[in-house]
Amino acid sequence: KAGIGKTHLFANEAMSLLNANENALLIIGSDCLSDINILEQLKDNLRLDFDFEDLIDILEVIGETSGKIVPILIDALNESWKPQLWKYVLPMLYKKVKDKNYVRLAISFRSEYQKSILPERFLELDSVVKIEHRGFRNNSLEAAKQFLGHYGIPFTPLHMFTANIDNPLFLTLYCKTYQGDEAELPVLYERLLEKANEKIHIKLAKPIEVA
Predict the structure, then answer these.
(1) 105: left (phi over 0), alpha (psi -120 to 50) or beta
(2) For residue 210, is pLDDT > 70?
(3) What pTM did the predictor assign?
(4) Axis crossing angle, helix 38-45 with helix 86-98, rounded to the nearest 10
(5) Burial of 158 (0-12, 13-18, 19+ CB in 10 A)
(6) CA–CA separation, 190 and 48 (whole Å)
(7) Residues facing 103 on adjacent strands
(8) Which of 12, 13, 82, 136 could be bridged to 143 by S-S, CB 3.0 to 4.6 A?
(9) Is 28 helix (H, G, I), strand (E, B) or coil?
(10) Mind listing the pLDDT tens digit for each residue in 113-142?
(11) CA dihedral of residues 49, 69, 89, 110 (deg, nearest 10)
(12) In the chain, what is the straight-line distance between the N-terminal and C-terminal CA atoms, in Å?
């Protein structure tokens, strides 16, 4: 679902590997902004002077040399301009990566886009694993307590009746824009934008004051 923490999961995994001097490739689906072949878009976005498939071969050599798996993490396929283009590319990527020993591919997308993104019976292919990200659904009480405590907001049992309390994005927005009420998600977004605009105005005002 939206805001459940898919991007954060991939970004955190990539950062953890890089901080450990290991290798990872993180690709953002929303960077694919045209209707041309996805592989060509990936080549252009990564500024490669060779095909994306060749990059997979290079990552395999890197992995073999280091003795460590090199993951390719492609986040938010549904945020591409033409998400249906992935349906024709994923079988090729699957076939390419399946023959590798040190390269693995992980993709994320919102579940309602599955039919438009995945080829038919793709999840039934050998070695393909599906994981549903549930956010804080299984530990919403503990998560809410930690988030509210971090922002100095007193926790009450009433917080657990908030509809989206198990959604990490909602919980973050709720804490950052808390005004003592139980606002819905659109209101939280509006408050966050107001705060962002205030900060922009302050930054713009400082150079004017100096001048």
Answers:
(1) beta
(2) no
(3) 0.75
(4) 70
(5) exposed
(6) 39
(7) 70
(8) 136
(9) strand
(10) 999 999 999 999 989 999 988 878 788 788
(11) -120
(12) 48
- Return the sign of the alpha-carbon dihedral for residues 8, 4, 165, 162: positive
Q: Which of 150, 105, 107 is nearest to 7 (CA)?
A: 107
What tokens appear for 126 in the block?
Answer: 């050998």
* Reduced 3-state DSSP string for 142-163: HHHHHHHHHCCCCCCHHHHHCC
Q: In this structure, which amino acid lies at residue 27?
A: I
Structure tokens at 198: 């205030």
> CA Rg, the chain, in Å?
21
Cα separation, 146 vs 160, whole angstroms: 13
